[in-house]
Design brief:
Blueprint (H helix, E strand, L loop, with lengths): L13 H13 L3 H14 L5 E5 L5 H6 L7 E6 L2 H10 L6 E5 L5 H4 L4 E7 L9 H10 E12 L8 E2 L13 E2 L3 E2 H11 L3 E6 L16 E5 L5 E5 L2 E2 L2 E7 L1
Parallel strand pairs: 1-2, 1-4, 2-3, 4-5, 5-8
Antiparallel strand pairs: 5-13, 6-7, 9-13, 10-11, 11-12
Length: about 250
């Protein structure tokens, strides 16, 4: 895939994206709580170098830095306005820092430098995952945690979205919502040298309201058995959390 891909090529709809991410700080998301459940036993009594790759406004660093005060958290994102917000959010966190950078540039600067890397809600919104994951393997020593949309069959889905109400849509299809074959993704991880790969289906247990019909945004539908499915626009959000041990 191209290393020149920009999720936010300019500041179109800047306020919308910042405000949509701030809700993750106001109320912890269930999927973030699941990551905390997996991460906390590893980091709570240790000192680690932890990378938050594609950190957005840094809400994970804001919460997790308190779980391991002796660890160092470093967030990178290619978008300046998101890093500016992350610095504001974590300005009182002495063990957190941020930098504008691209995930594909990391191997040039860091080789097996970070003990743990988090790559949260990212790869389904890239053209493909291969180069991103290779970068994470290059810079990480022990564990990688990621979340994305996966299908349990042997099919990859490339899904492009154009939200016409957003300024960015004037330039064409403005984002991906890719769903990847999990068996193939897992094989890819082992081929890169993973020692262990664990996946966790994320089953939400709260009701999320449906957004306006012209907005992408996750909502839930309750099934007859009481379980909920997550949908954004016409797309079923098949979330998995993946822990990769190196």
């Amino acid at each position: 895939m191209s290393h020149n891909y920009k999720y936010f090529p300019n500041e179109h709809d800047k306020d919308f994206y910042i405000n949509s991410m701030k809700k993750y700080v106001d109320t912890k998301q269930k999927i973030d709580l699941k990551l905390e459940e997996l991460l906390n036993p590893i980091i709570k009594n240790e000192s680690f170098q932890i990378l938050d790759a594609c950190c957005g406004i840094g809400h994970l660093d804001y919460f997790f830095s308190s779980l391991s005060p002796s660890s160092t958290f470093f967030g990178i994102d290619q978008t300046q306005f998101l890093i500016d917000e992350a610095k504001k959010l974590c300005m009182d966190k002495n063990n957190v820092s941020f930098e504008v950078d691209d995930i594909y540039n990391l191997p040039k600067k860091y080789s097996k430098f970070f003990d743990i890397t988090i790559n949260w809600k990212t790869i389904s919104w890239l053209p493909y995952y291969d180069e991103c994951i290779k970068s994470l393997f290059t810079v990480t020593k022990k564990h990688i945690f990621l979340s994305s949309l996966f299908y349990d069959g042997d099919i990859d889905f490339e899904i492009k979205v154009r939200e016409y109400k957003k300024e960015k849509a004037k330039e064409g299809f403005n984002q991906f919502y890719n769903v990847y074959s999990y068996p193939r993704f897992e094989k890819f991880l082992y081929d890169l040298g993973a020692k262990s790969v664990k996946s966790f289906n994320f089953d939400i247990d709260i009701d999320l309201p449906k957004p306006p019909i012209d907005d992408m945004g996750t909502y839930t539908l309750k099934l007859d058995d009481g379980k909920r499915i997550q949908i954004s626009g016409p797309i079923m959000m098949l979330w998995k959390i993946v822990q990769i041990d190196l």
